[in-house]
Design goal:
six-stranded antiparallel β-sheet, rod-shaped, five-stranded antiparallel β-sheet, alpha+beta, 20 helices
Length: 783
Amino acid sequence: MDDASAALVVDARGVVTGWSEGARLLTGFSAEEAVGRPVRELLAVEPGAEDDLPRRPVVPVGVVTVRHRDGHPVALRLAACRVHGPGDADAGHVVTALPADAEETTLAGRVFEQSSLPISVLDAEHRFIRLNAAAAEAMGGSEQDLLGRPFADVAGPGEATRSVNRHMRTVAETGRALRDESYSQAADPSQQVWDVEMWPVRDAAGRVVATALAGLDSTEQHRARRRLALLDEAASALGTTLDVGRTAEELVALLVPDFADFAAVDLLDWVLDAEAPPLRGDPEVTLRRTAHASAGPGAPDTVVPLGRTDVYPPYSPPARALREGRAVLARTGEPDFDRWMAERGAEALRACGACPTGIHSELAVPLRARGTTLGVAIAVRNIRPDGFAADDALLAEEIASRAAVCVDNARRFARERATALTLQHSLLPRVLPGQAAVEIAHRYLPSASAAGIGGDWFDVIPLSGTRVALVVGDVVGHGIPSTATMGRLCTAVRTLADVDLPPEELLTHLDDLVAHLAADEREDVPELGATCLYAVYDPVSRHLAVAAAGHPAPALLMPDGTCRLVPLNTGPPLGVGGLPFEATELELPEGCVVAFYTDGLIEGRGRDVDHSTQELCRALKAPAESLDALCDVVLKAVLPEEPGDDVALLLARTRALGAGQVAARDVAPDPGEVPAVRQWAVELLSAWGLDDIAFVTELVVSELVTNAIRYGEPPIRVRLIRDRTLICEVTDSSSTSPHLRRAHAFDEGGRGLLLVAQLTQRWGSRQADGGKTIWAEQALPRR
């Protein structure tokens, strides 16, 4: 028998029972010397490895070293075939042997040996019985060292090892092939990732006698999938809010710990202040720390507190990234990086309280959006053994570009919001004018939603005769266009109020104005629309006249504690046109509280308007120290935690002028009645203690009454009102309005109204259904 046909028979106990001539030629032992001896005694054991024999299989397979009869070791390749006895009992093995350096004679054997894929065969106990060179290299040893050893001992502890063992057990039990992705340490992306294919090996009878494993190194594919997953996560995780600081926090949370051991975002100061970018860059790179995150123990910690500025030297990676406008990758061994780490890296590691390894790699990526540099994102590694590579730089640039757009969007939103808020605050009344008709308290809450500042507004306008106009409105849309439209309407309302138009007529003129504005706008501007409520309260008659254009009705709290909505015939929103506006008139007792508001107080996504209105009425009835405190009570009770729209709230508590502050009398249409009226006025001022202004008042009353008798129509009535000023009113039935004119030197008349204008603070006229009223106000003497 030649070398290729060497064979031996081993029983179930591992004792040699048969010995071929080829076995004698390979080992030097004759059949008489080998038969009856345990096969293990023929193995060559290295010094100190005797204790390992019991853990080896009874019948060794693969490449093993045997002891030649003359004492020198001989490397043989063994293959074993199990032999079954009666009743399928284990009868031993037939073992064939070849020199270890003998070339494979079969094509299949050569394919196995020369395969670039790691391929190994394991027995039922998951012990290696055959490995090719690629498998032995992947497992970190030689085939001779690995044969007979369990897979779990070679691969080491870990979830990946347990997963492969479970799958091999399933293959052996079910006879089905399986696939598993295995990587030794999931927390360490630097480890290799293997795509392992497992399939059963069957004997001639179809029984599963072993499990074969083939591995494909899929590390690069795995890392590519991780990069794609990170990009996909960036699309959903970045820019969830229009807040610069929050967006920076989202970026570092995305990078740590999946991409870096430490990450930070530093922004230029003007970005955080919502200002326009400077025309020229600062020669020194000064950035403000906006967000940072560390992977945990052993990872670097920040040396720059949040909100603090830091100056980066020109050689540092962040300064280079800003200067060059691209990602800068720096590693240990580069002079500039070593210098930078000597200055900052040691501080960062000391700050974390543990320094297992130094920072060996840093990646700085500029945050650029729409051609503007906003700041820099910094990522460093010290726990991970692998440094940043070119692919990492490309990935970081892609993520940074998305984050930069989100930061720029947030900056632009903050800038537009600040502009709109400033414009709106400049248009809203800061200090409400002094008047005696009502006590006023108000609140304005701008929306924090991404839609921007809305066009809500309110106003309190003093009118003649101690009356007051209360206005609240809302322009459709958000942002600067809505705020600008609100400013136009606010100005228009004040102008129309100065003409002293009734509420329904004022809204009609305002409706025309909005329609003209909408017609004049460009096609790319959204359609204009607005709602408005205009009310006039007279403290003398205690009458409240209210008209609304698509606006919610005000709530009325009576002195007895009952609260209800004012019943209104609400007209269409401004700009719709085609329908008239109607006013509702009420007579109110003194001390009523009227609540005017915009729809943001009671409307919103998921909110029931009726329920919100009930909450408003309930809140108005709550006890409060003052009207101002009642505003806070209402907002807290009615509004959700995060309102989705602007809210304007105006509370007015009505007052009434007593009988001792108002006096009136009818005037006959006879010029001879004028002296009697003058005398009546002088006596009334004396009773009021206003003798100091009696002379001027006498002249004003004389001129206004004379004009009414001469140019007006009866009935004529004169009224004096003592409030914060002295008001003189003369009413007649003529609708012709007076006007100033320049009298010539020899004209006998035409100087009356000019004289009134010179002697009083202000004067004017207002139309009514039955005629007109001419009025003039005088300042009261100082006490």
